[in-house]
Design brief:
By secondary structure, this protein is mainly α. Helix content is 64%, strand content 0%. It contains ten helices and no strands. The protein has helices at 2-11, 17-28, 38-51, 58-67, 79-91, 98-107, 117-126, 134-146, 153-169, 177-196. The longest helix is centred in the last third of the chain and has 20 residues, at 177-196. The radius of gyration is 17 Å and the shape is globular.
Length: 201
């Protein structure tokens, strides 16, 4: 992973790659994280590699994916913004596409559809886990829940239902044909199953 990041960073014009990577790893290894770790980024890299031939600027998408969860404070509403700002500071004005990459990071709030295809690939890759088999889907659910010990079960369930319900209500969960073909059907089954579970009392 380190060699991959350093090659990408250098290829995109970045400097001080070793220091940037060390800080990135430090953030992803923070003790409160269970889901938003380097394992999630490793999964993103795998799915990116599967779709690479369909992506216009795979290096930009890859940088966005590396950095999209680098700042994660449980419950904060501005993690994506802070992650985008972290990336832009590290880019030091040397990465030509830095502004566009920061926009892709911001898009991983999943509030609105990104305007460009590379942004859509970025947000789709972030959500590929929703289309996993049921065992992996439940494992990721448990890891996400473990990151929010500040919420009781009722409050957490309400937040999760609101997010998943909004995804399920969209015409499509995935914005790209590539991931819609591969993940849409199973993701919809998983989300419908989760929303059908009894709410805690």
């Amino acid at each position: 992973m380190e060699a991959r990041f350093l090659a990408l960073w250098s290829r995109c014009g970045g400097v001080h790659g070793e220091a940037v990577y060390a800080d990135l790893v430090r953030h992803y290894a923070e003790p409160m994280r269970r889901y938003h770790t380097l394992d999630h980024i490793r999964r993103c890299m795998r799915d990116l590699d599967c779709a690479r031939a369909a992506i216009h600027d795979p290096d930009a998408v890859e940088l966005a994916l590396w950095c999209h969860d680098v700042i994660y404070i449980p419950g904060a509403e501005d993690n994506e913004r802070r992650s985008a700002e972290w990336f832009e500071r590290c880019a030091e004005g040397r990465i030509a596409a830095a502004g566009r990459i920061a926009g892709m990071i911001l898009a991983t709030t999943h509030d609105v559809a990104p305007a460009d295809l590379d942004g859509r690939f970025t947000v789709d890759i972030d959500l590929v886990n929703l289309g996993d088999d049921r065992a992996h889907f439940r494992r990721d659910e448990a890891r996400l829940r473990a990151e929010r010990p500040d919420l009781d079960d009722v409050a957490y369930d309400a937040r999760e239902r609101a997010f998943l319900g909004a995804l399920l209500a969209r015409p499509y969960i995935y914005y790209t044909d590539f991931f819609r073909t591969r993940c849409e059907a199973r993701a919809r089954v998983n989300l419908a199953w989760r929303l059908a579970q009894p709410a805690p009392r």
